[in-house]
Structures are given as C-alpha cells and as structure tokens.
Amino acid sequence: MTIKIDNRFIPGTQMDKETMGNVTGLAFLDKIFYIQQGIMLAQIRDISGIDGSTLQNWVKRGWTGNAINKKYSKDQLSRILLINMMRQALQLEKIDYLLHYINGDIESKDDDIIPESKLYDYVCRIVDVVSGEAVYNTEDLRTCIAAMTVDHPEIFPGARARLNEVLEIIVTAYNASLLADYANKQMQCLSI
Q: What are the pLDDT digits (tens) for 26-48?
C-alpha cells in the first residue's frame, strides 16, 4: 500500500506552495524578506501558524534568538520553521539538542556549521525530492542528502557528516509529522 502524504504546504508553515509560486527554502525566505530586513512576531505567527505565546516561550527557553528591535531575522524565522516542522514527531528538548548539535550556541555564529536559513533550504529541497512517499528508502534519502551537501564547506573534519546526519533526522521527523496528520484525517473519517 502506498500512502500519499499531503505536502502542499511550504515546510514548517501554513503557506500553500502553489499560492506562493511553488517556492520553498531560500526562495520562499527571500520573498518574505524582499522588502524588509526583519519581520514582526505577528508575521511569524501568520506564516507558521504558531501562537505568539508559544513563540515567546521558545525565545525565553533559548530555543530561538531574541528579536532585535522587535524584528526577527531570516535565520531566526528559519529556526522557528525547523522547530515547527519537527515538533509533532520529536520532543522540543530533543529538537533543541539537534539544533545545538549542528550550530552550537544560539547567540554565536562562530560555532555554526551552517546558517539556519541554508539548513532550512537544504531540508526543503530534500523534502521536494522525497515528497509524496509515505515510506522511503533510507539509502535513497542519504544519497539525496549527500548530493545536496557535496559542495557545503567542511569547516572542520566531520562537519559535513554531522550536517548530513541532522538533515536525515529533520526530514524523517517532518515526514513522520505528515504521516501523523494523515492518520488524524483518517480518524476523522471514522464514525465513532
């Protein structure tokens, strides 16, 4: 049996891909930040569907950075969208650990393997390649990830391997979330 999972939204958002011109990743972020350097909490809420108190809680816990002059950057939005993509499948503490594993201290860019916006772009591009499949071959996923990241700079020995490991977890968690949504929709069809 093949299950067609609903992948019509830009990952981590409630934005329909078609409505946004079928862009995801950096192209989507560039559309959002075309005119402005930062976006307000209300805009993030509209994009992600996450309520303001949840977002403020994430900031307070250090899971995403503080706004500067009440505005969030492209990397901050990307981090929020990455968390949102995985939060149905993984505990928030595990998501935080995963993002620290790839980029260290949230307040410092010196220990980052990759900017969050580029990480989000990789995830979106990989999701587009493997989308529509409920179950995928992990070797195919790893091959896809390796092909996407082959030119990513190796800032220290093993950095690309760490990046690939994190990408596999994020994409798998995101697909698990899509499958959970599918199962919940199936439950609604039952007459209870």
A: 999 999 999 888 999 999 999 99
Alpha helix locations (H) across the chain? 25-32, 41-48, 52-60, 74-86, 92-103, 116-130, 138-149, 159-189
- Residue labelled with tokens 């950075």: 65
Please, how many CA atoms are within 13 Å of residue 93, restricted to the half-sphere of its CB? 0
| Residues in the chain where the model's pLDDT stays below 50 | none
Choose among 143, 129, 139, 114: nearest CA to 175. Answer: 129
Q: How far is CA 52 from the centre of its chain?
A: 18
Residue length of the chain: 192
Question: What is the C-alpha separation between 157 and 146, in angstroms, rounded?
Answer: 16
The token duo for 79 is 């981090």
Token digits for 178? 């899509």
Whether the CA torsion 173, 179, 49, 21 is positive or negative: it is positive
52 vs 174: CA distance, rounded Å:
22
Contact 179, 3 (CB under 8 A): yes
- Domain boundary assignment for the chain: 25-187
Kindly report the number of other CB atoms within 10 A of residue 127's CB atom.
22
